[in-house]
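Hi support team,

I'm filing this because I wasn't sure whether my run with zinc ion finished correctly. The job status page said complete, but I'd like someone to confirm that the output block is well-formed before I use it downstream. Pasting the exact inputs I used:
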Amino acid sequence: MTLFRFTSARFDQASKDWKANKIRMGQMYYYKCEAHLKSGEPCTKKASSDQKYQFLPKHYCAQHGLAALRLEAQNIGAASD
Ligand SMILES: [Zn+2]
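And here is everything the job wrote out:
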């Protein structure tokens, strides 16, 4: 039964880790926006599922995703000059 207990504990931890960056809405889980507000508080919105934000290293809501995209574009622009 050692194997079962080990597996169960591993599952609980994995489950915890999996939920850590997600918001539950009814039966569904969504990624949490990983951006912070100007006040320093973490953003509480669910991350956008829009394809144009998929390549960003973090999950962002539509508002923060757009800001991150602009920043990304600036960085790419600066690097290629
Ligand atoms: Zn956000």
